[in-house]
Amino acid sequence: MEVFEAISGRRSVREFKPDPVNEGDLRKILDAGRMAPSAGNCQPTEFVVVKDQAIKQRLARAAYGQTFVAEAPVVIVVCANVPRTSRRYGRRGEELYCIQDTAAATQNIHLAAYALGYASCWVGAFDEDAVAGIIKAPSGVRPLAIVPIGRPAEKPSAPPRRRLEEIVHEDTF
Length: 173
Ligand SMILES: Cc1cc2nc3c(=O)[nH]c(=O)nc-3n(C[C@H](O)[C@H](O)[C@H](O)COP(=O)(O)O)c2cc1C
Hints:
Blueprint: H1 3-9, H2 23-34, E1 45-50, H3 53-62, H4 68-71, E2 74-81, H5 82-115, E3 119-120, H6 128-134, E4 141-150, H7 164-167
Antiparallel strand pairs: 1-2, 2-4, 3-4
Helix pairs in contact: 1-5, 2-5, 3-6
The structure holds flavin mononucleotide (FMN).
Flavin mononucleotide binds next to loops.
């Protein structure tokens, strides 16, 4: 799939068919996340791939009852291994770069999933401590996004975007 088609066609989907995600496809999706840029190439991003139904349900509860999280066949918890970046870049690495790095990886995951015919949703509203406990995150590893992935069972229309003229500023604001 052409990159611009993936960027504009991808939607946040919150209803999934129970069909499993093919293992080869899952690897391609994770690999797209791995290939994202990172500050200083520190690569702080780590993925927890959740298929266990009980764990998915606990994640859905930690995401304030967003039950669709547990309905997807696969859920990827995208984490930042903060010390990988902070030991090189200090506070800016901890507070900014490793967050940006995981966001870039998360977007790659969405686009790759869509290009392979799957749907996903970026879930950011969750109790971070609860999710860290559920996935047994080691100290210094922050779960920053929950991404349910599966075949779409709905086709949402595109939410509006601000016009380019409104958000692009020439030379200065
Ligand atoms: C950082 C971030 C956090 C988000 N958290 C949630 C969430 O917790 N639950 C949810 O249903 N959607 C969540 N979304 C998805 C947005 O609602 C969605 O991207 C936006 O409405 C635009 O729709 P689109 O993705 O179909 O273009 C989140 C998106 C981002 C980027």
